């Protein structure tokens, strides 16, 4: 049956011509292999001519496989060469010579490593331009300003040498220290609340210095002299720190587990110190500590969560964990199988614990976890990886960005979060807020802890932050005299351009609108002065008041009176029961015409915001001016309806990308206007915001410059733009490869923009939001870093597949460049297109139950947390264009890397040739041509076995396999250099084949950590293959069905690299190792096949089984062996085979 030529055959140009000619039944050629070369013997020309004759005379006749391809190849070449043969007048005698010349020329082009077509150049140029744009965007565009102030300290570390091998098996590996601040607290005995710091990947125990120094100074200078604070259980912090010798805990799962085990034993040792009178200065009467507060940086935060799942963890010894830039949601890299498995185990443990219906069965019921992220300046890990939304409910933890923390208001990089002065102050105060030395746990109860941490670290405008004032009983009994009271009309805005202008204490009563309240209605107050928590002194006080009917005989002692205006019994007075609203203040960065950044050193604004539903028990909001003389400052307060203050804009990605967003705010707008854009939630987009405002229409100057806050919920990220005219908008919301929320909710609520403007200026404001396409390109780097490793492997696998396919068919191992050029024209566009459709299909199908069943690995959980583990890692089909984008960039990377390696190997080969000419006598040209592998030193099988055995023994005992891998790479580069030198010297086909084969092997593999540095299996196949190549042995052709295994293996490798290469990159190493093992088996099978068909690993396995398996087993496995026609079979078959009845 006639077989059509495949696209691969046509793309090669050569097709399967050599193999076809060799396999022609009528040709009398003989093929011999000598060092991998195919030598045409006597009768080859006649075979070609006869094939041409038969093809032209029997058009349409049927021939088998290789014979037909030989005829087609001969016909093609003859048609192009026939004209020259007839012109020569040699009756066709010159046709075979012409064919041979063209054949040799074409084979030389296919083997040429520098082959480069116009299409390849154009593809490379496009790829480099795109990659340069992405890198430039990442390094220069959409950058947040840096505002951290430097911190100073006088550190001293006291080691615990007695924490030795009697306490832990890691005593010789790790160390424990106690921090003390010089000049403040130099006594090394424990006395306060234990805190343990855990450094991160390659981190130092000394990184705790800024935070520990601030804790010591803060207690010494403020809390120690505050009797209320001391009475509420505030004591100094005993901050311990651990030296992990800067281990790479992010790359090795077993290292993470070892650290967690050591830390649990360290906690037991720390708690025991407080029971030892000689090592403790603890006040008598205080309970001994039973738990330790954990502070973890980077991977140290992951280690902290791992501790609670370790077998040696003692229950309730940890109840508060604060992590800084810790990648909780997923492993930062997936190159280590044990790291990925550890993450899965730990995250599953936390999710299942908080999903337990009965809190009594929750081992983490008393644990509070807070994750602090640095934002866009953190280039070590994507800050969205710090999110806890998929791990912890909001009742037990939250994630906050440093740019949202009051009085910090700046992002920070991965290391700056440990020393930033503004942040360390906020962090230390948060730790003291939850500390209570009067309790054995050394902290407040869990509900109080989470409330205190929210109050300190969140803006106060989040929905989860409870209004403290509303929960308290009235503490101020206010009597107002009508002559000193101003009652505003309903809906009237209160505007104070100076404080204390009347010279007397004055109250302004703002009546709360009557029910039913308008949907979304709010009360807002903004001032550049601090609102006083005490009514006895200060400048401004804000009270929530309700009318208190005076009872007979009542006096001012009925309540703890904090304010008195004139006399209680004056005629025309009104009595109100009030609560001070100072506890609910939110601080905003000052925004004036001179402001530049939110973190500028300026007194912040005070802001109050209440939903009207929360004020249903009150009748008035009282703003009291307590200044008795004019003070420079201002205040604005008003009630607003939801329809005026909140604007929802429903525009999708496509609309924002094409048209952007434009909104004009009227001159009669409220002081605070909020724009909600639900579709803006992806971390892959960056935006440009422009705020255009008219000149203030009032004769008086505006009270403050426009202030903008961008924020999202879960995680709690806020950024402030002072004196704003616009800025860069980017969010850390929904991100690729992130697990869904623990609550099972859908998409994020999206981006919200809060804009505070002076409403007394009769001017409009125009807000414009557009997609920053170039700025968005840089966001791909942090989210898809591993893609730039996995997708190039996809390209390399497809190119190798082409090389082996052509080699098995023709005996020509084409160069990587030529194979790449052919793949760009045929297979790569088809594969990239198919993957694009697959990405779209998967993004849509992940919402369905069948996809979660077949693609996800979660079986018992209600929410499938693995649904985003494959392809682009997103369920949004909008990002389909990323597949061809990454494919194009990866092709360019491979082409550029190929020519870089070619340049280096040619330089090495030139150097090798010069050195050889200087040190040895040059052999005659004819001798060099007769020995194509003369660059390779001859060695016996026995010597090679000894060398390989010594290397394997060293890996098992002394040398880490990573070091051995580097050595093997150097050996492979040397082999490739020698092969190139041989190809340049003798110009033989075999040498060119071998160089192209060794050239690919230089860049196929990569280094991957394993559970032990002496893991032999992680590098054994590579050792065997490199050792085989170092002898100059060319891989034999496969002409049997075994060749399909190479084809399918490389295609499967490419498919896996595209689909799961990011989330499970470590498996790519396993697949590459398996490919090396297969090629080594092909090498071993070189002598098992026929002389014309090449080696067959399957036949090799059969031969080895026949040689080493017992005869009884062999005979019983072949029922007819004993009665076969061979004498050997008759000799053993009748005696060894045991027949069944």
Automatic annotation (TrEMBL):
<keyword id="KW-1133">Transmembrane helix</keyword>
<dbReference type="GO" id="GO:0015031">
    <property type="term" value="P:protein transport"/>
</dbReference>
<feature type="compositionally biased region" description="Basic and acidic residues">
    <location>
        <begin position="50"/>
        <end position="67"/>
    </location>
</feature>
<dbReference type="GO" id="GO:0005789">
    <property type="term" value="C:endoplasmic reticulum membrane"/>
</dbReference>
<dbReference type="InterPro" id="IPR029058">
    <property type="entry name" value="AB_hydrolase_fold"/>
</dbReference>
<feature type="region of interest" description="Disordered">
    <location>
        <begin position="1110"/>
        <end position="1141"/>
    </location>
</feature>
<feature type="transmembrane region" description="Helical">
    <location>
        <begin position="114"/>
        <end position="139"/>
    </location>
</feature>
<feature type="transmembrane region" description="Helical">
    <location>
        <begin position="950"/>
        <end position="973"/>
    </location>
</feature>
<comment type="function">
    <text>Involved in inositol deacylation of GPI-anchored proteins which plays important roles in the quality control and ER-associated degradation of GPI-anchored proteins.</text>
</comment>
<feature type="domain" description="GPI inositol-deacylase transmembrane">
    <location>
        <begin position="787"/>
        <end position="999"/>
    </location>
</feature>
<dbReference type="GO" id="GO:0050185">
    <property type="term" value="F:phosphatidylinositol deacylase activity"/>
</dbReference>
<dbReference type="InterPro" id="IPR012908">
    <property type="entry name" value="PGAP1-ab_dom-like"/>
</dbReference>
<keyword id="KW-0378">Hydrolase</keyword>
<feature type="domain" description="GPI inositol-deacylase PGAP1-like alpha/beta">
    <location>
        <begin position="190"/>
        <end position="433"/>
    </location>
</feature>
<feature type="region of interest" description="Disordered">
    <location>
        <begin position="1"/>
        <end position="68"/>
    </location>
</feature>
<protein>
    <recommendedName>
        <fullName>GPI inositol-deacylase</fullName>
        <ecNumber>3.1.-.-</ecNumber>
    </recommendedName>
</protein>
<dbReference type="GO" id="GO:0006505">
    <property type="term" value="P:GPI anchor metabolic process"/>
</dbReference>
<dbReference type="GO" id="GO:0006888">
    <property type="term" value="P:endoplasmic reticulum to Golgi vesicle-mediated transport"/>
</dbReference>
<keyword id="KW-0256">Endoplasmic reticulum</keyword>
<keyword id="KW-0813">Transport</keyword>
<dbReference type="Pfam" id="PF25141">
    <property type="entry name" value="PGAP1_2nd"/>
</dbReference>
<feature type="compositionally biased region" description="Low complexity">
    <location>
        <begin position="12"/>
        <end position="26"/>
    </location>
</feature>
<dbReference type="InterPro" id="IPR039529">
    <property type="entry name" value="PGAP1/BST1"/>
</dbReference>
<feature type="transmembrane region" description="Helical">
    <location>
        <begin position="1048"/>
        <end position="1066"/>
    </location>
</feature>
<keyword id="KW-0653">Protein transport</keyword>
<dbReference type="InterPro" id="IPR056824">
    <property type="entry name" value="PGAP1_TMD"/>
</dbReference>
<keyword id="KW-0472">Membrane</keyword>
<comment type="similarity">
    <text>Belongs to the GPI inositol-deacylase family.</text>
</comment>
<feature type="transmembrane region" description="Helical">
    <location>
        <begin position="878"/>
        <end position="902"/>
    </location>
</feature>
<keyword id="KW-0812">Transmembrane</keyword>
<dbReference type="Pfam" id="PF07819">
    <property type="entry name" value="PGAP1"/>
</dbReference>
<dbReference type="Pfam" id="PF25140">
    <property type="entry name" value="PGAP1_TMD"/>
</dbReference>
<feature type="compositionally biased region" description="Gly residues">
    <location>
        <begin position="1121"/>
        <end position="1131"/>
    </location>
</feature>
<feature type="domain" description="GPI inositol-deacylase transmembrane">
    <location>
        <begin position="1002"/>
        <end position="1083"/>
    </location>
</feature>
<feature type="compositionally biased region" description="Basic and acidic residues">
    <location>
        <begin position="1132"/>
        <end position="1141"/>
    </location>
</feature>
